[in-house]
């Protein structure tokens, strides 16, 4: 049948369940873009608490922080990706590309 495609998702699991998946990847990218967990959460229509919990979970499971925060003050607080966070983000992007290549290949095997 025309229009059929093989689909799939990929994520990395750790001791707490999901360590890194598509949504968490976007959250990390938005934290890098905005320099703020709060702004990143708003851009994703996510509560600050949920975003904070995801960041804390990723930091714990990685054994090294992926995101570092600074306490607010006169200039306000902020957040930034650590080199470890950048490393995991690049790795997950690479995994996504491999998955896309695999899915395209498998879609080519469908009859039709």
Automatic annotation (TrEMBL):
Signal peptide start-end: none
GO molecular function, one term: DNA-binding transcription factor activity
Database matches in Pfam families: HTH_1
Domain HTH lysR-type: 25-86
This protein's name: LysR family transcriptional regulator
Natural source organism: Thermosulfurimonas dismutans
